[in-house]
């Protein structure tokens, strides 16, 4: 069984702050955003909207004109904002990682890769630089064809 480790950075609160590397990104709805007296912002994660990959462009470039941006914006309720979570991924693994995370998490704005995990058995190990409200540390998926 192949093990893939993902090192997620902290939340990004602006598309302008997204990283300049290839990888995986999560798009969240967040409410109750406020300044932390010790620096940074806090917010309440409401929903994971979308999991995507940036393989032909960097994550930053991908989000400058994302084809689902209007859907992301339309999913927001009053007072909510979008936050992003990212991890650099080797291009050789990016499709497997994308499929695994979408299949495991089932974000509502993903309309493909939700029905099955199409790759050999994989152990995903997730590391975070800060607490991630709705995340898990690791999981295993077996090839599953519906």
What's the short story on this structure?
It contains three helices and six strands, in the order E-E-E-H-H-E-H-E-E. The chain is α+β, with helices and mostly antiparallel strands and 146 residues long.
Provide the fold topology:
Blueprint: E1 2-8, E2 23-35, E3 41-54, H1 59-62, H2 69-75, E4 81-88, H3 94-105, E5 122-128, E6 138-141
Parallel strand pairs: 1-5
Antiparallel strand pairs: 2-3, 2-4, 5-6
Name the poorly predicted regions. Answer: none
Structural domain count: 1
Q: What's the β-strand tally?
A: 6
Average pLDDT over all residues: 89
Q: Per CATH, what is the topology?
A: GIY-YIG endonuclease
- The strands making up the biggest β-sheet line up spatially as 1-5-6
Based on Cα principal axes, name the global outline: globular
- Any idea what the CATH architecture is? 3-Layer(aba) Sandwich
Can you write the helix and strand succession as a string?
EEEHHEHEE
SS-based class: alpha+beta
In helices, the fraction of residues equals 10-25%
The CATH top-level class label: Alpha Beta
Attribute tags:
alpha+beta, GIY-YIG endonuclease, three-stranded mixed beta sheet, about 150 residues, three-stranded antiparallel beta sheet
Describe the structure.
With 146 residues, this protein is α+β, with helices and mostly antiparallel strands. It has a single domain, classed as GIY-YIG endonuclease (3-Layer(aba) Sandwich), CATH 3.40.1440.10. The chain is built from 3 helices and 6 strands, in the order βββααβαββ. The strands form 2 sheets. Strands 1-5-6 form a 3-stranded mixed beta sheet, with helices on one face. Strand 2 and strand 3 form a beta hairpin. The longest helix has 12 residues. It is globular and about 45 Å long. It starts with a strand and ends in a 5-residue tail after the last strand. The model has no long low-confidence stretch (mean pLDDT 89).
